[in-house]
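Can anyone check this?
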Amino acid sequence: MLTTAALAQPAPSVPEQPDAHRTKAQLVSLLGRYPSNLEIVLANDPSLLTNQTYLSTYPALAGFLSEHPDVARNPLFYFSDFLRGASFNSARQLREAIDAFVEVYNEKAIPFEWTKAVVHPTGPRVNYSYLCK
């Protein structure tokens, strides 16, 4: 049963949600310390935001993401600015942007080694369902 004394006490304070726009500005500032186009890589592959092996290369970013898990839960909001305005005036400019992306994305790349000794060619299949077998 509630008493008048219990009703007179103030309700416990509810912690405020962190300001998303301030967090976004902090993220942009932090990404400015890393190689160019890292933000494009993260925007295009948000799964890297939770990949600890990938983030070990960027310790400050890993710490920031552990303090702000909302960034990984809503990457579209936090990285939307990096996905806008991608237009190129020449094929060379496009190629440079692709090369910069690959350079950042493939920092820990290793070559693929084919191990199958013999490959037997087959003809095209008639049904799509064959691919699911």
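Reply from J.R.: I decoded it. Residues 1-16 have pLDDT under 50 and may be disordered.
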